[in-house]
Every structure is written in C-alpha cells, then in structure tokens.
Amino acid sequence: MSKERIKDFIDKQLENLDDFSYKVESDENHMYAIFTEVLSQKVNLELTFKLLDDVLYLHSITYGWKPVEKSVANKYFWIELLKTVS
Fold first, then answer.
1. Distance between CA atoms of 48 and 15, rounded to whole angstroms?
2. Closest Cα partner for 54 from 4, 7, 3, 5?
3. Which helix H or strand E contains 70, and what residues bound it?
4. Are 34 and 84 in contact (CB under 8 A)?
5. Comparing C-alpha atoms, which of 4, 5, 2, 14 is closest to residue 69?
6. How far is Cα 15 from Cα 11, in angstroms, rounded to an integer?
7. How crowded is residue 18: how many other Cβ atoms within 10 Å of its Cβ?
8. Are the beta carbons of 63 and 76 closer than 8 angstroms?
9. What is the CA 14 to chain-centroid distance, rounded?
C-alpha cells in the first residue's frame, strides 16, 4: 500500500491549514493516519485507510468503509477528523 497516496490526500485536504499534525503508518492490510493536533488542539486520533482496486477508502465507525477521493466523499474524512474537536 502507498503511504504517499494517503499523504497526498491528507495534504490536499489540509492545504493552507497549519494547525494539524499527523504521521502515516501501515501494516499488511491497512494504512493509518495518526493525528496529534487538529485545529491547534491536542488529540489522539487514528484514521484507517485501505486501497481496493486503486480506490482509496476511509473507515468510519458510523459510516463504514467510504471512498474519499471522488466528488464530495471527502466529507467523511472531515466528519471523522472534526468530531474529535470540542
């Protein structure tokens, strides 16, 4: 799996925003974006991604696996990311 694909997706989402800090890790099946800062707030958030048939999916406990690169599907990324910020 490509860590660069995840980093490209996240960097595109966070373009012109400086108040985020994350790293990407992976295992045999999934990739994980681990956020330690979201909108200047300290967090401990792990988002799970996978590539299936060259489509990038994000796992949400509420919505399940959702493709995040097409149309407005990035909303699932933002829902997961922002629900940690109070």
1. 20
2. 5
3. none
4. no
5. 5
6. 6
7. 8
8. yes
9. 10
Confirm whether pTM is higher than 0.85.
yes
State pLDDT tens for residues 4-31.
999 999 999 999 898 899 999 999 889 9
Which single residue is written with the structure tokens 């922002």? 82
The total of other beta-carbon atoms located within 10 Å of residue 11's CB is: 11
User: Residues 33, 6: contact at Cβ < 8 Å?
Assistant: yes
Q: By the 8 A CB rule, do 19 and 42 touch?
A: no
- Residues belonging to the chain: 86
Q: Are 71 and 41 in contact, with CB atoms under 8 Å apart?
A: no
43 touches 85 (CB < 8 A): yes
Six token digits for residue 52: 């299936």
User: Smallest Cα–Cα separation from 67: which of 59, 52, 57, 79?
Assistant: 57
